[in-house]
Write a structure and sequence with these properties.
The structure holds two protein chains of two kinds. By secondary structure, chain A is mainly α. Chain A folds into three domains: about 150 residues, no CATH class; about 40 residues; about 230 residues, MetI-like (MetI-like fold), CATH 1.10.3720. Chain A is about 80% helix and about 0% strand. In chain A, strands 1-2 form a two-stranded antiparallel sheet. In chain A, helix 15 runs antiparallel to helix 16. By secondary structure, chain B is an alpha/beta fold. In chain B, helix 4 packs across helix 5, helix 4 runs parallel beside helix 7 and helix 5 crosses helix 7. In chain B, about 35% of the residues lie in helices and about 25% in strands. The chains are: A mainly alpha, B alpha/beta. Chains A and B meet through helix 12 and helix 13 of A and helix 3, helix 4 and helix 7 of B.
Chain lengths: ~450, ~290
């Protein structure tokens, strides 16, 4: 019986259990529902939960452990000489067994074939056991719950408690995923810092991650100083914010304070469409339209602008985050109480005076929070800079020059065939960690600022 | 404008009063003109034939009213009777509401305030306003009071501005309480103090008329008493128009009272007379507490 069938059956059993519980509660109440502690349906839910949840938990646990136990059993049945292999080689054998399982053409090696057969047999047994045990658990759970139903059983409280636990488990899962990602990046970074000292990584001014594969290879220096990448990242982000902050804020002021409601109803969604454009589309817009245009403009003005420049990437990235800034700022400006505007107008303030001296200062903390979120977005942006900013790590603050960013380097380090124990690959994780810390810090500050603002207007 | 305006003209009376309402409407049609003398000698504001519309809906019907110098006039009436709408006509605050149209003639010292050439900015400096809920700006106490003088260029230097701020805070009876913390945010004061700060802010631009839209409805009785006393003191310098739901308050602070009902001015006269001897049955019903 496949897992999905089993789950469907469990669901069916649970609904059956619901009716059993409901009937039982009604029978016990003797037609007087108000003698029950909870509404009859809660007794139904209570029985259904006892039927479904333990069986489901068992199912999940079993599925998680099944593979490992079967492999152990198959391993024990392997010939003596294979069992004595070192663990890595043994793992290879097991991989061969797994391949033999999935592919139609069986392995030529009779040993592997035998192991695969054994694996299949064990899995079939396991599946059958699982089905029997899960269904038994469901049945027993339902029966036990049904027996417990008495008029004074606080079914509603128990059901609500269970649901609350489920909700908490869902949010815990999301948080644990984040923690898991952070930990995996952290452990790989620690491996990197065992090969390259952290001080060299954090303070080194030279980034050139090419490692020599042969001792006599040319052009492979292997320097891992991330300062040029940081400077490049900050440079493109600064250009982006120089575009996005004024355009976003001014359009937010227009939308919130001046635009006719009908204009606003059209303009705001249109602006937000910008946020929905895939960044890769922005990327080739930057590389194919903006960069050549900048270069030609530079030639006219007598400036040398690299075809991949921080300016081009930053400009397009700025356009990309305009909707971010404008949407958040607009919401914040909108949230400034009308009474403050009335107060200013009643004192004879013009519209401009009311906006610049009362509305914007009142909204400022929220606007700053929105800006910080936009910056962290710009720092983490990958596709546009990959396509338009360049690959060489120059330590420069000239926006006309080509720079490279942390995200670009992570991409280039991980593209293609990689050994996962060379510093070159592990450097990507260290960069990822730095990026994570950087954006996390900005987000924390932004959330703090925004929350502080909210409190002052409740 | 961002926040959609509430429609003050909307009726929100309980269903039990529907019968009374329709009876009142019949009587209103029979009695087009307001009872009582709406004129005063040497008026500051004169309103003649004022009609206000929110889109298609008429909120104020043909109101004639004078506001004299150095008097407190109270506008009373049930919810949605148009008293706040009428008040907001007097400094053109209705301009900020989408779809609001004012007809008729309102003159301040003989000049039509709805005249095309008149800048509402100048008008609002002469006709100040205090709102129902205290609305100090999220600035320091000093900057709150100095805001009006600054935008109108009333002070030539910091010393003059300091004087205006201190003088306004003194008039509003707040100086002693805040003189040591002028640089702290105005939003940190108590509700009553905030409302007095708003009054100080309004009188800092030296207006001729002060409009007060239920200035005490968000305050506790003690803060209310302080504000009422303050209104009585301010009367020596300003004309004050106060909208209130609290009839005792109207009786305590005002010299004249105007009773509004369904957008019409029903009765106007000296406060003592309105409260002891109302002539219009609607006024009597309202004052004796039969509805409203």
């Amino acid at each position: 019986m496949s897992i999905s069938t089993l789950i469907w059956i469990l669901l069916g059993l649970s609904s059956l259990a619901y009716y059993l519980g409901l009937k039982r509660a009604l029978a016990i109440s003797g037609g007087q529902v108000r003698h029950l502690h909870s509404l009859p349906s809660y007794y139904g839910y209570y029985t259904a939960l006892w039927c479904g949840l333990p069986a489901l938990a068992f199912l999940i646990l079993w599925t998680l452990l099944e593979e490992r136990i079967i492999i152990l059993a198959v391993g024990a049945s392997l010939p003596e000489e294979l069992q004595n292999l070192p663990s890595e080689r043994l793992e290879l054998v097991f991989n061969q067994v797994r391949t033999a399982l999935s592919s139609a053409n069986a392995s030529e090696d009779p040993v592997i074939c035998a192991a695969a057969d054994r694996y299949r047999a064990l899995q079939a047994i396991s599946n059958r056991c699982l089905a029997v045990v899960a269904l038994m658990a469901a049945g027993l759970g339902a029966m036990w719950a049904r027996r417990r139903i008495r008029p004074d059983l606080p079914a509603r409280n128990l059901v609500e408690k269970t649901l609350e636990t489920l909700l908490a488990a869902s949010s815990a899962l999301a948080i644990l995923t984040t923690v898991g990602i952070l930990l995996s990046v952290l452990f790989e970074s620690i491996r990197f810092f065992e090969l390259v000292p952290a001080t060299e990584f954090l303070f080194g001014l030279n980034w050139s991650p090419q490692l020599a594969i042969r001792p006599d290879q040319v052009g492979a220096s292997g320097a891992f100083g991330f300062i040029p990448l940081l400077v490049g990242t900050l440079l493109t982000s600064a250009v982006a914010m120089a575009v996005a902050a004024p355009i976003g804020l001014l359009s937010a002021i227009y939308l919130a304070e001046f635009a006719h409601p009908q204009v606003r109803a059209v303009a705001k969604p249109l602006l937000e469409i910008l946020a929905g454009v895939p960044t890769v589309v922005y990327g080739f817009f930057a590389a194919l339209v903006v960069a050549p245009f900048l270069r030609q403009a530079g030639e006219v003005l007598g400036l040398t602008i690299a075809s991949e420049s921080a300016l081009g990437a930053g400009l397009v990235m700025g356009i990309m985050i305009v909707p971010f800034v404008s949407s958040i700022s607009e919401d914040v400006i909108h949230a400034v109480p009308q009474s403050l505007r009335d107060g200013a107008y009643a004192l004879g303030a013009t519209r401009a005076e009311a906006i610049t001296q009362v509305v914007i200062p009142a909204a400022l903390p929220g606007i700053v929070g929105g800006m910080l979120l936009a910056i962290s977005r710009a720092i983490g942006e990958t596709m546009i800079v990959v396509m338009a900013a360049g690959l060489t790590a120059k330590l420069t603050i000239n926006p006309l020059d080509s720079v490279t960013t942390i995200t670009v380097q992570i991409v280039t380090l991980l593209i293609g065939d990689q050994e996962f124990d060379s510093p070159k690959t592990l450097a990507a994780f260290a960069l990822g960690l730095v990026l994570f810390v950087l954006t996390l810090g900005l987000n924390v500050i932004a959330l703090y600022v925004v929350r502080k603002y909210r409190e002052s207007y409740e | 404008m961002p926040n959609p305006p509430s429609t003050p003209a909307e009726l929100s009376l309980p269903a039990t009063q529907a019968v009374l309402e329709s009876a009142a409407r019949d009587r209103l049609d029979q009695l087009p003109a307001a009872i009582g003398d709406y004129t005063v000698p040497e008026p500051r504001l004169t309103c003649r034939g004022v009609n206000v519309f929110y889109g298609e809906k008429q909120a104020i019907f043909n109101v004639n009213l004078d506001i004299g110098q150095r008097e407190v006039i109270a506008l009373i009436g049930p919810s949605g009777c148009g008293k706040s709408t009428f008040l907001r006509c007097l400094n053109r605050m209705n301009d900020t509401i989408e779809g609001c149209r004012v007809e008729g003639e309102i003159k301040l010292d003989g000049v039509d305030i709805y005249h095309d050439g008149l800048d509402p900015v100048i008008l609002r400096a002469r006709v100040g306003m205090v709102f129902q809920k205290p609305n100090p700006f999220p600035k320091s106490i000093y900057d709150n009071v100095a805001y009006g003088p600054r935008i109108h260029g009333l002070a030539r230097n910091r010393t003059e501005l300091d004087e205006i701020v201190e003088d306004s805070l003194r008039k509003a009876g707040l100086w002693e309480e805040v003189k040591d913390r002028l640089d702290q945010p105005g939003t940190g004061l108590s509700g009553g103090q905030q409302q007095r700060l708003c009054i100080a802010r309004a009188i800092a631009v030296n207006p001729e008329v002060l409009l007060m839209d239920e200035p005490c409805s968000a305050l506790d009785p003690i803060a209310t008493a302080t504000i009422e006393q303050l209104i009585d003191e301010l009367r020596t310098q300003y004309s004050i128009v106060i909208v209130t739901h609290n009839m005792q308050q109207a009786a305590r602070v005002s010299q004249r009272t105007a009773y509004f009902h369904l957008g019409r001015l029903i009765e106007i006269g000296p406060t003592a007379k309105i409260f002891t001897n109302p002539r219009h049955p609607l006024t009597e019903d309202y004052i004796t507490g039969r509805f409203g």
